[in-house]
């Protein structure tokens, strides 16, 4: 396989190793054991494909980082804690391979992200992305148009709330 090393052939080799290990141990295979077997049998192929494998790993890492949920966020007017909005992602995908800081995203982009990540009930009874949907719904009245950023709406809401507190003397 060395001269014709491809990701496809490496996947096939990994699958073969996993099937072999699984056949010996009631179908159970750990990733660590499968990867160790692949490294032992296909070291030259792994070396030849290292740049591609690194890119794949880094893309997966970027997706993981982009999918993290935030507990708090910063706006130009200060911190806005998301206690009422659990699970707001730090970044959302706006196109294949492109992400944007959630607060810098437009309502249009956020709505498209939610459609692509349609709410689903999780086994514990919560609804996936329910906190983000609620965040958008609560801030939607503060947008002037669909291309306003979420950060603009947060700032407008905070400004209104701050003005209301001053008027009521709170």
Task: Give the gist of this structure.
It comes from Kaistia dalseonensis. The protein folds into 2 domains: 2-48; 68-168, no CATH class.
Structure description:
By secondary structure, the chain is an alpha+beta fold. The protein folds into two domains: 2-48; 68-168, no CATH class. 54% of the residues lie in helices and 12% in strands. The protein has a two-stranded antiparallel sheet. Strand 5 (91-95) and strand 6 (98-101) form a beta hairpin. The longest helix is centred in the last third of the chain and has 19 residues, at 150-168. The radius of gyration is 23 Å and the shape is elongated. The termini are far apart. Residues 70-81 have low confidence and may be disordered. It comes from Kaistia dalseonensis. This is HK97 gp10 family phage protein.
Report the radius of gyration as a whole number of Å.
23 Å
Q: Average pLDDT value?
A: 80
In DSSP terms (H or I, runs of 4 or more residues), the helix count works out at 7
Shape: elongated
**Strand arrangement in the largest pleated sheet:** 1-4
Unreliable stretches (pLDDT < 50, length at least 5) are 70-81
Q: Which H/E pattern describes the elements?
A: HHHHEEEEEEHHH
Count of distinct strands: 6
Q: How much beta, percentage-wise?
A: 5-15%
Distance between the termini: 73 Å
- What composes the largest sheet? 2 strands, antiparallel
Organism: Kaistia dalseonensis
Protein name: HK97 gp10 family phage protein
């Amino acid at each position: 396989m060395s001269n014709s090393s491809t990701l496809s052939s490496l996947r096939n080799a990994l699958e073969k190793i996993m099937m072999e290990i699984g056949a010996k141990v009631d179908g159970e295979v750990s990733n660590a054991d499968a990867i160790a077997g692949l490294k032992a049998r296909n070291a030259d192929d792994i070396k030849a494909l290292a740049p591609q494998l690194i890119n794949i790993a880094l893309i997966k890492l970027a997706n993981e980082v982009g999918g993290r949920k935030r507990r708090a966020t910063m706006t130009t007017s200060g911190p806005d804690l998301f206690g009422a909005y659990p699970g707001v992602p730090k970044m959302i995908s706006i196109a294949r391979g492109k992400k944007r800081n959630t607060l810098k995203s437009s309502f249009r982009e956020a709505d498209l992200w939610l459609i692509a990540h349609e709410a689903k009930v999780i086994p514990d009874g919560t609804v996936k992305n329910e906190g983000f949907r609620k965040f958008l719904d609560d801030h939607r009245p503060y947008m002037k148009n669909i291309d306003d950023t979420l950060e603009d709406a947060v700032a407008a809401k905070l400004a209104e709330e701050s003005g209301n507190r001053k008027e009521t003397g709170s």
